[in-house]
Amino acid sequence: MENFTFFSPTKFVFGKDTENQAGSLIKEFGGSKVLLHFGGSSAEKSGLLGRVRNSLKDAGVNFVELGGVHPNPLDDLVYEGIELCKRESVDFILAVGGGSVIDSAKAIAMGVCYDRDFWDFYAGKASPKKAVPVGTILTIAAAGSEGSGDSVITKKDGMVKRGASGECIRPKFSILNPALTQTLPPYQTACGATDIMAHVCERYFTNTKDVETTDRLCEAVLMAMIHETPKVIANPDDYQARANIMWAGMVAHNNIVGVGRDQDWNSHGIEHELSGLYDCAHGAGLAVIMPSWMDFVYKHDVMRFAQWATRVWGVKMDFADPEKTAREGIKRFREFLHSIGMPVNFAELGAKEEDIPTLVKKFGLADGQTTGGFVHLSSSDIAKIYKIAVNAKV
């Protein structure tokens, strides 16, 4: 296990009706003028925004609003939010929604405290040191942004999707009411579950040795998702299953399962080009890319994949042919994703094989450059993974 520092100061308020505590929590963390940031009409129609507004009013917290966040949030709304916050002297941002809304709120929070273009953080030109405090009310269990110091934004010019990270954008508090996720369509629920599992897998496949504790934590979260996800697909109103999935989403990405080990985020990076170009759901893209990445890299450490197959998927270990065990684990992963309604190849996602050169170019590796942790990939390697994704099947 490697040396690490783990600091996760977010206050989590979990359970039914907890959104009614938003006003008092904002005051607890020093907020007096709030940007209420949200997505489309669903939060309004459900009554959630009304309850949040009442909570803010009851606590004597002034607020302004900015809605309109879409999946794969765009930079143009971030710029609008930055200007609004500066004009209105906002000192706290409350994100009501899923990962897209939270990521947009975090981008605004950084931009308000930065005298240049906020995109610098996403282009790797600067690291965030200061941000307006952010709180969240989560409505989709998926991205884990409610407990992380990460944000992903798409630049409209060129549809380039990139991430930024910093401890200053880790939420001060996050309200997690599983009941708020019960109205999600099965497809969105499955996309969220896929994203959660991918966050764990990106940490699980590591070159760091002797990480049994975090291995077991990763495996436990994956097994919980395998157990609970079919329940909510069959019965969207299963509150207890929703609750387990919501907490798994947070645990999967606040990095408690990833400390002390190197990590590999190539699957996310490769998928970002898909959702950037086609505006597909991130989880759906991951369902296509993650098993394809596994197909390409598993020989790098067959025994780690075999461990994953036996511990998580219940595959019987074939000591005479561990590769067979590893491949069976990947097969069962792809079959599971298919069983919850996720696409498994380019055609099912709506992607086109002829766009592979464009996707690789957008990834942005220079000649001779590689990316990754578990296996370092070149541009030609990434093209091969996309090609596997074209032909994948259950």
Structure explained in plain terms:
Helix content is 49%, strand content 11%. It contains 16 helices and 8 strands. It has helices at residues 22-28, 42-45, 48-58, 75-88, 99-112, 119-122, 186-204, 212-234, 239-253, 266-278, 282-297, 302-313, 322-339, 346-349, 356-363, 379-391, and strands at residues 11-14, 33-38, 62-66, 92-97, 134-138, 150-155, 160-165, 173-176. Helix 4 (75-88) crosses helix 5. The longest helix is centred in the middle third of the chain and has 23 residues, at 212-234. It starts with 10 loop residues before the first strand and ends with a helix. The mean pLDDT is 97.
**What's the order of the H and E elements?**
EHEHHEHEHHEEEEHHHHHHHHHH
The overall average pLDDT, rounded, is 97
Between the first and last Cα atoms, what is the distance in angstroms?
36 Å
Percent strand equals 5-15%
Strand-pairing-aware structural class: alpha/beta
Using the CA coordinates, give the radius of gyration.
Answer: 20 Å
The spatial strand order of the largest sheet comes to 1-8-5-4-2-3
Q: What does the oligomeric state look like here?
A: single chain
Number of strands: 8
Which descriptor suits the 3D outline?
Answer: globular
Helix content: 40-55%
Largest sheet: 6 strands, parallel
The number of helices is 16
Q: In terms of per-residue confidence, which ranges show pLDDT below 50 for 5 or more consecutive residues?
A: none
Throw out a few tags for this protein.
394 residues, alpha/beta, two-stranded antiparallel sheet, 16 helices, 8 strands
